[in-house]
Amino acid sequence: KNEVEQSPQNLTAQEGEFITINCSYSVGISALHWLQQHPGGGIVSLFMLSSGKKKHGRLIATINIQEKHSSLHITASHPRDSAVYICAVKGFQGAQKLVFGQGTRLTINP
Amino acid sequence: EPEVTQTPSHQVTQMGQEVILRCVPISNHLYFYWYRQILGQKVEFLVSFYNNEISEKSEIFDDQFSVERPDGSNFTLKIRSTKLEDSAMYFCASSGLVSGELFFGEGSRLTVL
User: Fold this and answer.
1) What confidence tier does A95 reach under pLDDT thresholds 50, 70, 90?
2) Which residues of B44-79 are buried (b: 16+ CB within 10 A; e: fewer)?
3) Does A108 touch chain B (CB under 8 A)?
4) Helix/strand/coil (H/E/C) assignment for every residue in chain A
5) Beta carbons within 8 Å of A93's beta carbon, 6+ residues apart
6) A97 contacts in B (CB within 8 Å)?
7) Nearest chain B CA: its distance from A94 CA (Å)
8) pLDDT of res. A89
9) Which of A72, A83, B18, B98 fits a 20 to 30 Å CA distance from A58?
10) What one-character DSSP code corresponds to residue B72?
11) Residue A61 and residue A9: Cα distance in Å, rounded?
12) Do the Cβ atoms of B102 and A33 come within 8 Å?
């Protein structure tokens, strides 16, 4: 059974700061997802990655398969980035389900 | 941009009542999922559905739960006899065959009284 841990659980920063959210998992995976959950509850997929690094706008996601660790970075953070960021992993052997972390609540103050 | 739609957005029901939550996945997607999130807790996997059958389910998904794809567009989750502990946000998601990227609906909040 895969355990997914995120840190920090809560993060408050000032607008413009560089943000890093970390995710560690216990068992080998086929893919890792970074998701954003809005205050209203809706979930949006940000990245799906299985190796290396991906970038989309101000967001960067990296994964180290050997270390079983991924990071989500936000450059030039903005109040609209305030949300819960969730890491979720998918196992091997045809498994379809995602195992979710508990989320990191990010608040960016103007 | 294509999206996953869910109805209702919020349903309040009495304990013991049957509830059906509806989802319209993205039209060319082949994998469909239901997840739930109890208030303040992690999102949990319920069930995945592919090729008109359940491909994987969690231990949460017991005999009180069922899923169906009654036509070419809808994907439903039925809870036969709701319990207080079924109160949660239920998310439908879908993914394509190639990319594996997940698209989530906005969720259906179920409140069992």
Assistant:
1) low
2) bbbbbbeeeeebbbbeebeeebebebeeeeebebeb
3) no
4) CCCEEEECCEEEEECCCCEEEEEEECCCCCEEEEEEECCCCCEEEEEEECCEEEEECCEEEEEECCCCEEEEEECCCCHHHCEEEEEEEECCCCCCCEEECCCEEEEEEC
5) none
6) 33, 45, 48, 56, 58
7) 9
8) 94
9) B98
10) S
11) 18
12) yes
pLDDT tens sequence across A55-92: 999 999 999 999 999 999 999 999 999 999 999 999 87
Chain A touched by B56 (CB under 8 Å): yes
For residue A31, give the nearest of B56, B100, B109 by CB distance.
B100
Q: Per-residue confidence at B58, pLDDT binned at 50, 70, 90?
A: very high
Nearest CA among B66, B106, B62, B109 for reference residue B88: B109
Cβ neighbours of B45 in A, within 8 Å: 97-99
In angstroms, the separation between the Cα of residue A45 and the nearest Cα of chain B is: 6
Name residue A41's amino acid: G
